[in-house]
Specification:
The chain has about 375 residues and is an alpha+beta fold. Among the domains are: about 5-90, Zinc finger, CHC2-typedomain (DNA Primase, Chain A), CATH 3.90.580; about 245-379, 3-Layer(aba) Sandwich (Dna Topoisomerase Vi A Subunit, Chain: A, domain 2), CATH 3.40.1360. About 30% of the residues lie in helices and about 25% in strands. The protein has helices spanning about 5-15, 15-25, 70-80, 80-90, 100-135, 145-150, 260-270, 285, 330-345, 365, and strands spanning about 30, 35-40, 50, 60, 65, 140, 165-180, 180-195, 205-210, 220-225, 225-230, 230-235, 245, 255, 275-280, 320-325, 350-355. It has a five-stranded antiparallel sheet with strand order 1-2-3-4-5, with helices on one face. The protein has a five-stranded antiparallel sheet with strand order 6-7-8-9-12. A hairpin with a 5-residue loop joins strand 3 (about 50) and strand 4 (about 60). The radius of gyration is 23 Å and the shape is globular. The chain starts with 6 loop residues before the first helix and ends in a 12-residue tail after the last helix. Bound molecules: zinc ion. Zinc ion binds near residues 43 and 65. Zinc ion (ZN) binds near residues 48, 49, 60 and 65.
Length: about 375
């Protein structure tokens, strides 16, 4: 057997990221669940730098230092090229390496990868079981705070005579955030809970929106130690899932926005006959992984090896994505096209369509008279 690659690559990728942090002298990172978070080793950005210990991806949200493995981290922090980083990590390449040693290193790397996968599985199972407990605790949306919240977002009872079963509520729901090793309740209060169903129709996640107790019952303002937190949180495994707001019998069209509010607003306007209305939870889920094409920032082409993206059921002959105008329009458009092309590739004959209400306003915002949605950010 020949060596298809430098054996030091395997060695480098088997170094635990926690050890990398020590070796590179990155100081001040705190362990939070499966992440290490703290000051950026390059720009010093406070709490802007994080390393995901399951995927080995790292990112600074300030200076955009980013990458996906040990070598990239060494390159970024030490300002080395690839060869330099590899030598720094594993020494200069030995003239010849004993094949048994290569095999041993391969096995070590495989074992490390298996452990990582197992931990990710365990984490996912726990998240899904949490989501199911929250869903069980929640009561039908028509009985509680959901109506008031939707009204505050411009969706009246005339527009939406019946609250969809996918929307429930909890009167006093804790907003829990993990800080270091501790769980801190940053807020408690009424919460709209939307069920996220997997393609098989099983509840695998919940989308939670904390609602302000005081009128007009918009999104709650939540902060922890002076830092404001989003009023919306997903618990569970949302991948490939959707919030199924309305699925009439015989539907052949699926209209999908990112959020519940946008999708309900479209639903009230009834722009399409025989249409189901589902919320896609987030753009990443609707788009799936995008192909990287040299020279183009966003290719709009789906990476078909991504098994975690949303794919519409086979009865969908027309898939309509609603474009929220409040984020970077080029990126948003490319992502939506990516998702539509994925669906069209998997379901020949399916027609994809993007509808939007112009730059800077989403469908919900139009209804709200163009008022910007300034309360916290969506997840
Ligand atoms: Zn930085």
């Amino acid at each position: 057997m020949s060596f298809p690659e430098d054996p030091r690559l395997i060695e480098a990728k088997a170094i635990p990221m926690t050890e990398m942090v020590d070796r590179l002298g990155i100081a001040g990172l705190k362990r939070m669940a499966n992440e290490m978070v703290g000051p950026c080793p390059l720009c010093g950005g406070r709490d802007r730098f994080g390393i995901n210990l399951r995927s080995n991806a790292f990112l600074c949200r300030k200076c955009d230092l980013r990458g996906g493995d040990q070598i990239a981290l060494a390159m970024g922090v030490l300002n080395l090229d690839f060869k330099g980083a590899l030598s720094w990590l594993c020494g200069d390449q030995p003239a010849e390496l004993d094949p048994r040693e290569v095999e041993r290193r391969r096995q070590l790397a495989a074992e490390a990868e298996r452990k990582q996968r197992e931990e990710a599985d365990r984490y996912r199972r726990r998240a899904v079981s949490d989501a199911r407990l929250i869903w069980k605790k929640a009561r039908p949306g028509r009985l509680g705070v959901v109506r008031a919240y939707l009204l505050a977002r411009g969706i009246t009872s005339d527009m939406l005579p019946e609250i969809p079963e996918a929307l429930r509520f909890i009167v006093d729901h804790p907003y829990v955030k993990k800080v270091g090793r501790e769980y801190v309740t940053a807020h408690r209060g009424p919460c709209m809970v939307a069920g996220i169903l997997s393609p098989a129709g099983e509840l695998t996640a919940v989308h939670q929106t904390w609602v302000d107790r005081a009128p007009p019952h918009g999104k709650a303002r939540i902060s922890l130690e002076g830092e404001s937190l989003p009023a919306k949180l997903v618990r569970g495994s949302k991948k490939s899932g959707a919030i199924r707001l309305l699925t009439p019998k015989g539907a052949d069209t699926l209209v999908m926005g990112e959020g519940v509010e946008t999708t309900l607003t479209a639903m009230a306007a009834q722009p399409f006959a025989n249409a189901a209305y589902w919320a896609g939870v987030d753009l990443g889920n609707m788009a799936g992984r995008m192909q990287r094409v040299k020279g183009r920032r966003y290719s709009g082409l789906p990476d078909m090896s991504d098994a975690d993206a949303f794919v519409p059921p086979l009865w969908v002959k027309r898939l309509v994505f609603i474009m929220d105008g409040d984020s970077d329009p080029k990126m948003t458009r490319a992502k939506l096209e990516c998702g539509l092309r994925r669906a069209m590739a998997l379901n020949p004959g399916l027609q994809g369509q993007i509808v939007h209400a112009g730059a800077g306003v989403d469908l919900n915002d139009v209804l709200m008279d163009g008022a910007p949605d300034g309360e916290g950010c969506d997840d």
